[in-house]
Amino acid sequence: MRIAALLSVVLSLVLAPAAARAAKVSVAVAANFTEPAKVLAAQFKARTGHEAVLTYGASGQFYAQIANGAPFQVFLSADRERPERAEAEGLAVAGSRFTYAVGRLALYSRTPGLVDGRGAVLRTGRFAKLAIADPKTAPYGLAAVETMRKLGVYTALKPRLVQGTSITQAYQFVDTGAAELGFVALSQVATVKGGSRWIVPAADHTPIDQQAVLLKTGATNPAARAFMSFLKGAEARAIIRRYGYNVP
Amino acid sequence: MSAFADVLWLTLKLAGITTLILLALATPLAWWLARGRGWRVEIVGALVALPIVLPPTVLGFYLLIALGPNSPLMAPLQALGIRTLAFTFEGLVIGSVIYSLPFAVQPLRNAFQAVGGDNLDAAATLGASSWQTFVRIALPLSVPGYVVAAILTFAHTIGEFGVVLMIGGGIPGVTNVLSIEIYKSVEALEWGRAHVLAALLGVFGFAVVLTLLRLERRVFPSHLNDR
Questions:
Q1: 135-194 in A: which are within 8 Å (CB) of B?
Q2: What pLDDT is stored for residue B205 in this prediction?
Q3: A158 lies in which domain range?
Q4: CB-based contact (8 Å) between A58 and chain B?
Q5: Residue-number span of the structural domain to which B181 is assigned
């Protein structure tokens, strides 16, 4: 009897917190979404008790890791292509894919007055190097090329372009002054004061849809599903907008 | 296919130039480290080894700042109209020289140490100047060290990624080397292309190590009898 009573006490001690303990979800986050993702995770925890464990990196690397069994449960990509492919290849839960943010492109310089409000600096060309993200791999890079094409300056500027492998690197080139100006994500400079910038009209380039997808590894995790629906909610959308993204 | 050839040629050119510069630069440094005594030698020795410890992207980030327009190091060059060395082939050479420095200095230092003070003292006693001693005694005895230093530096520069990533800017024919091309192929989901390039790099690395081992045998046949 005593042993049974003792056992039940021990068991309740072990099991009770486990039952009350909230679940965890492991999220792979595109590097450009780092700041809003932190705020979103904090709000997610406050609302649901679940914890979102965030890992930041390049979307292409994440895709390679996920295809090879990485334990991420939700994938917030910097583009549309990789989540689409994850879905097509059966790595993601079919029908879970949606656009959580639409990136805005900005032409930015740390030098006040260099960039005007209409991008005319691209025509006058008083600079040596213009940084962009690799148009082949980064949607922001492609959008930058499209914008320059639309202005009819791409061919003239091509010899002066330097490419970062990601939009993060393009921003580093501009922020260190190595390139005088560059096409960066508005989210990168939304909270930065000073410098000069031109927010490129969204109509000038292909929309930079950043898509989220629930991965097969998270299909049965309630926290993963909760995180996906939280991301679609009004509160999350307001946070995302605050960081310089549009929401669909 | 010509893009392949361009990337390969650029990579070999960078490694070749870096190796030549490093062998010249590392010789006096390694000589001083091998013959010197005291805490100053220890400190410089540790500084030379630092590029092994620092992650290449960290090294690359600070090079980006150091070679950038706001850097005091660049002020004299700016007077000549050069705004920044980032995104140039010259900048990559500077980065590679720093990155591969320990791989040139260490084998030379070991080689110079192995020459031994006795040989040098004997030469000095016979009236040789220190320059003659170096050229006629130390240098010929250190040839195996030079072979090892050259091959290690060359191979290490071929495999360089983080530094080039940070200061290169991926300009075709100027800063777009093989390792960067592999990374970009992976990012672009072109895995087939990545596999081909990586296989190329792998075969090359294998050939270099094999050559190193064979050369070492040929240059030090006595090693086999020593033991």
A1: 136-137, 161-166, 169, 172-173, 176-180
A2: 82
A3: 105-199
A4: yes
A5: 3-25+55-104+140-226
